[in-house]
Structure formats: structure tokens, C-alpha cells
Amino acid sequence: MTKHAHAPADLKADQMFINFGPQHPSTHGVLRIALTVEGEVVMKGDPDVGFLHRGMEKLFEARTYSQGLILTDRLDYISATHNNLGYCLAVEKLAGIQAPLRAQYIRVLAAELNRIASHLVFFGTFGVDMGAFTPFLYAFREREMIMDLFEMLCGGRLLHSYVRVGGVAADLPAGWTEKCREFLTFFKPMLKDYDTLLSGNPIFRSRTEGVGIIGADRAVSWGLSGPTLRGSGVSYDVRKAEPYCVYDKLNFTVPVGKNGDCLDRYYCRMKEMEQSVEIAFQCLDALAGAELNPGEFMAKGVPKMFKAPAGQAYAHVEASRGDLGFFAVSDGGFNPYRMHVRGPSFINVAILQEILVGCKIADVVAILGSLDIVLGEVDR
């Protein structure tokens, strides 16, 4: 990813240099794309990242393992629970901690609710990018209901810090499971309304179908993951490939696309919300069973400050935007010696420099929106 302070020196007389962002409303954050165009056709497109860089990976080194958790919410802030979970799994592997079974079901339930909330943001904003404002109103209405559930669960609506090293912060509060079931029952048929509202719209389809095609081989070679990879027909999902928590005990399918275009990437996320509903129902059923004792939400004997044995550990989860990994190195102290985050948005945005070439300027908005990046995760 190269940076151009000004127009490139090799700019031809019939070409124009355009700064797409970082203030553009369709960049979904402070991303700058340096475009070289001939008329409406993009000849070159370089994503320029780093405007939001906060040195997160370095900040982990100055905090205890418990304190470092709050930094993870600020990475992909639209999908905070997955960041909490990936971090905790890495630290637990490093320190030899095992979360109770009840906590693992609660973690999965929270993660899938957060996945739905994240995909709703994508659905709403992608519709706005394509010129349709009404889907945004529907999406954020349902997302507010999920935010209410998280507020009742842990006090936070956007940044949760609910998943903790050794389990979760607290057990499910009284009446929460009933409200969760009520939401899921209401939400499931809404997915058909979303299809009616946007998916079949001829303008929406003309702007996404056959646009920004990423073949399976290209997607794999660039290291893409999540719905961006599965939209290209590659059925890879961390929850299936390397199950964590209790995903190996749950029944769900992994939606994949065929053509690798913007429409396939969109549909993968829409279908994933449907699967997340089914996973959430299964978790609620399991939590209501007699074998999962209420109150067993945290591993015993995990202090607020603890030392991890010298060594290293890696854990990854299927976050809303793809394969999210945390690599932790310990020197035997209270703080991690090193911490590295494998953010899927950072990997996914890199392919823009290849797939933007030859498209129209209007297609840049559709292609970028279909990747569903979050700049907090790109820059870290």
C-alpha cells in the first residue's frame, strides 16, 4: 500500500488523480484511496491506511492480561465481542486456563448476537452506499434491540468487555433469556423483508452483480477471509475448520457464493445472520438444560493479576469480518511481552489495489462497501 502526497509523476495528460477519502462518506472510516482515472475508468487504486493508527499492539505490553482486554473492544468496535473472545482464548491458552462449559455457551451466544448486529450495520450502510436509505432504518431498528440485550447483559451497548479471561463477567441476568428469545423470534422473519426491500431491487443488483469479482484462487492467494472469502466460493470458516468454545456441538451451515462479486459477498452476510439466529436458539436451549449449572460462568482461581508461563500462544476466531487472530508472547510476567493482532479487515482491504483496476468510479463505492471493513481494525 503506497502513499502519494500528490499526483504521481507518471500521470498522463488524459488522466486525473483523485483522492477518494479519507473524508469521503463511503469510505466507512478514515481510509484514503489514491485513484488514477481516465474518464470514469480507474487505472490505478492504492489504499492508503494509517490515519487511525493508535499503537494498540504496543499498548498491550504496558497492561496486565486482564487490563489489556479493554483494548480489544476498540479494534473492530462494531464486533467487539469477537475481539474480546479471540484475545481471551489466546491468553487462556498461554496461561493454561479453561473456561467452564456454561461460560463457553454464553460466549458463543454473545458472539452470534454481535455478528447479527455487525451484519445489520453492513446491510444498512451498504444500502445507503447504493442509494437506498430505507434499509438503514430497518437495520438500525433491529440493531438497537440487540444493543438493548447487551446493555442488559453487561452494561455496554457498543464496547462490551463482557468476555473475560476464564469465562464471562457475570451470568445471564434474570429475564434476559426470555427477551433474547423474543428478539430472535421477531428477527428471523425480518430477513425475508430485507430481501424484498433491497436484494431484488433492480438498481441494487445492477450495481453489485458482476462487479468487483474476486475468483477463489485470487481470494486464497491474498489471504482473504470471512464473507469476503466465502463470497468467492471458498467454504472456510474458523468455527468449522478449527472449532473453539462449543461450536463443534452446534448445527449450522456456512453460506458460500459462486461468482465472487459484490452481490455474493452481500448475500453471504445476509445468510449468515439466519445461521446466527439458529446458533443462538441452540445456545439458549443448552443454557436452559440441567447440565449447565447457573453461576458457573468463571473458572475458579483466576485472579485479576496473574503471571503467564514463559512461552507463546495463538488463538483465532471467526469474527464478523473474517479470521481474527491474537498472537501472545509471555516472558513469565504479569504483562504480555509481545501481542500481535491478525485483523481480517487489514488483509481484506489490500486486494483493492488489484480489483479496482478497470472498474468505474461508482464501482469503487460498491466494491469497498462489499468488503465491510472497519478502520479501527485496519490501523490498530
Please compute the radius of gyration using only Cα atoms. Answer: 21 Å
Number of helices: 16
Assembly state here?
Answer: single chain
Give the strand content. Answer: 5-15%
For the biggest sheet, the summary is: 3 strands, antiparallel
Which sequence of SSEs, written as H and E, runs from N to C? EEEHHHHHEEHHHHHHHEEEHHHH
Compact summary:
This protein is 45% helix and 12% strand. The strands form three sheets. Strands 1-2-3 form a three-stranded antiparallel β-sheet. Strands 6-7-8 form a three-stranded antiparallel β-sheet. A two-stranded antiparallel ribbon has the order 4-5. It has one domain: Cytochrome-c3 Hydrogenase, chain B (Orthogonal Bundle), CATH 1.10.645.
Overall description:
The chain has helices spanning 56-59, 69-73, 80-95, 101-129, 134-154, 176-187, 190-199, 202-208, 216-221, 227-230, 238-241, 262-287, 344-350, 352-355, 361-371, 375-379, and strands at 16-20, 32-38, 41-48, 163-164, 167-168, 311-319, 322-330, 338-342. By secondary structure, it is α+β, with helices and mostly antiparallel strands. The protein has one domain (56-343): Cytochrome-c3 Hydrogenase, chain B. A three-stranded antiparallel beta sheet has the order 1-2-3. It has a three-stranded antiparallel beta sheet with strand order 6-7-8. Strand 4 (163-164) and strand 5 form a beta hairpin. The longest helix has 29 residues, at 101-129. The mean pLDDT is 92.
